[in-house]
Fold these 4 entries.
Entry 1:
Amino acid sequence: MAAMIDLFGSYIFGAVLLLLVVGLSVRFSTSRTTQNLDLIAQQNLSAIRAELEQDMRQAGYGISAQNRLLYADTSEVVFAYMPSTGTQPTVVRYWLDPSFTNAASANPRDRVLRRFQRSATFVGGAINWATETATIRALTTSGDGALGLVRFRLDYFRGDNVQTTTPVSATDRTSVRSARVQIVDESDFGLPDDRGTWVEGGKKMRYGSAVWSQVIFPVNLTLPDPGGLP
């Protein structure tokens, strides 16, 4: 009888141990998947950040003060700079497309950030577009799909670090000296998780996420206007 009790007890102990091992394995697998989702979001954010930051740091180069910053709002910015090898200014526009979410992504919050670039001249402060074909593309999609942008916001500051109202008026644009960029990126697909933030199809979902917030100081916005520039 004692032997049967010992045998039965060993079965119970073995079953409990097996359940613990399976539970740890599931947690480890979920943790690895979650880390991979965060890594995807971080890599996607790096791709968006690199191009946007490079463009914004060129804003105003070789351009008169009135034409350096052409439009500035929380979800859109338009600025100009003179390419080092060009004879006409380049106008660049970034804007968060309000018309639709990103169809290339399984993430319902994924948005499309677009980038426009074209050569131009200025006549009396107005843009006179050159004949070159404009380049308009979705910055937050790649050949492999979406890049997971879910939030994009811009705020602008004068030289005294006072934040401007938005959209920035034409008279205030010449006083802008810096811009704060805030981007939240998520993975373009999620993982069912009871601790997830979003509910989709009756299930909580967990998406990888990465955040970038930085104040950019385009040095050319701080330079005095020497005159004679486009």
Entry 2:
Amino acid sequence: MIGTEAMTEVFIDSVDCYGMAVTWGPYKQYTYASPKNYFSEGGFGGWEGWVFYGKCMEIPMFQYVYNPVMPLKLAGHGNLSGGTGPNADETSAHNIGQCFYWLVAKSYLSGFVIRIDYDLVPVDILSSMDKKADTYMLDWNRPMEDPEKPLNVPEVLPEGTTDWHYWIPKPGRHPYRHFPFPERHKEFNKHQRTYGDPQKEQFLRMMAYMRSHLIPEFLVYGEMMRPGKIVSEENKKIDYDYEYYWSFGDTNHPIFQKPIAYEDVYAAQLEHQGNWSTKPIITSAWHEANPDNLQIIGHVQLPNALYIVANTSNVARNLKYSFECDLYPKDTLLRVFVLRLRPGSSHQSSWSDWQMLDEPLRSIDGIVSWEREGKLFSHEIMLIKLEPMGKKEK
């Protein structure tokens, strides 16, 4: 597999995947120590500030235009932090926040996958791991002896330098990246322990299973089309808490310029967390594109279609959802299948339990209309699949 980081049209048929460092919503790389300045109007983040404050929105234009020939997109950075330690009162040093669910749903419904990335941040201690394990970082640099330049990091760094100047690039596991002094090793392991949240992990596993096993003919090999609409008032903007501490790992951050007290480290982190406002219900729609899977009805090849609705908030929401599909000729009859996905082991056995509705839909003058009102539970995904079955006899 050949991959790259940036992506433009000229590379579409040359690479298999690309890993964008920038992702949805407030989780933006390169904010460094000043995300508020980065997102502010006139800041060096540019249009990212418009997105952050709701003046414009991001859309998956490449996927909409080029899927399924589009290389797989690895959507930015993510992790599973926010769990608890060996004792119930021992919380994670960092918590990516409830916005994680919005980030994951937005990515997978757009045909992307989330990249769990621990570059520049402490690795999550997951629920299946020993909760007493040491925390560490993964990076491309670590202190090593160099015959021509022996490693000798001074206690007080010269003005204008960082620990980086004393490192030799080599990939690997680096327990205490920015804290090379012995007395700071213990402090890092004590204060920077991040525990994975099993609920976030289960939600991510569910979304990955949905993409790879339930509906790959749509999210992997299909084409995007106009999504349905939430016509109720339940999709008003809400606040999500978030913490973006990848920026915390940059060597230009002032906390890495010299040994300082940990209370100062925590104060610096405050700029990287807060609330972000957006709509909690996400929608998308796809149709099959593989000609081998298309059904021939009346000498016309017709694809299956899929509509997806995701509730990314932590409360159930009543909503009215509708769509109009223009894929099918007049009087085409369609079976309707509905699948509801919820994270949690008690629901995992039902992840492939499609329910066929009693009454088929019919295309009237080339338009198939559907509207339903109901409840979507916390972090629940609803899939509505249309399968053409023939034409209504006159």
Entry 3:
Amino acid sequence: MNTNQKRLALARKIAARRKASDSPNLPKSPSKPTPITNFFDGAAEYRETMRESYEKHAKLARQSGADFLHASGLYGAMGSMVPETAGINSPHSFGLYGALGCAYEAQGWRAVKMEVLWGELAPFLTMKEAEAIDAIAEYVILRAWPSEARREQMSSLINNALRANYDSPLIGLAVVGIVNRVYWCRLLDPSVRQEIAKIYGISLDSFL
């Protein structure tokens, strides 16, 4: 079994054991994004709240030491999917994880396993830091408040991130998100779906 087959097998195992009652392994934060409930909350204000959440989680990781993900248990099953050289054991990665995890809790979205949340983050982990921070905020706006989101911009960012990293181990992590049908699957261009399906030997139905 080659590396891609091992990653795909693990992704399918995670998807198979997922249950609606699963509790997410969410980071504890002194400040969480608050749910968007009406127009007056303002998408711009919520984007800033997401950035603040990112900064607080990234700061927590920096203060906790270089090996924070391992020490906290957040690396989890990714150890067999994403090598250390992928660079996700960083304050930036935890900042993204914390911001998205808190958004899940604040919005009341169905809980997912830790590995699935990392799979959902995979495209953002390939981006430059500043771009990723803006993108994860916009992604949450798109999920929570579609009419106020920059959908075309978000779709372009996700597709370009994946398209430029077909040979990266982070695409194996993205497959976890695909098999679990994370929200950004509906933003993918047909060419990106086809290429990832070909690389990992998965059905195009996995993206739906």
Entry 4:
Amino acid sequence: MKRAMAGLVAAVLMVMLAGCADEPTLAAREDAELDQLSVRAVELQGKVASTGRMTPELRGELTVLVQDVEAWQARTSRTDITVSRTGPADDGSSATSPLISRPGPTCTPCPLVKTFGNQVCFLVSESPCADGLIAKSCAYVCLTRTRSITATPAPTKTPGKS
């Protein structure tokens, strides 16, 4: 009876260990999640470009994406992707210098999306245009990744396979 029980325990442990060998490592899972966050940012950028404006639905997607990035950072303690906010605060107070628009009878609207290498920024608010206004304040939420934010995630290798 004791040998049968010991054999059963050994068999269960071997099955558990064999099952773990096929699971991706923690780092590989985190990298896959990071790639998915990047894909979502690029997809959102495409949606904003195709609609030509930041709709309430797209603003909601941005809010969820920002929350997911911040949750991923808190859970993993990694900074491969970060969130930053630029421009005036949503309460209307001026936090930074305004984006200078072209002088003339009307001011130029803020770009909906701005990209700078590994950073993509989404417009979240802008000051209204008024007669004679030559400067406009634009506020953005930006996602920055340590490597390029691309639409196609990099392939991940399964441990033990080439």
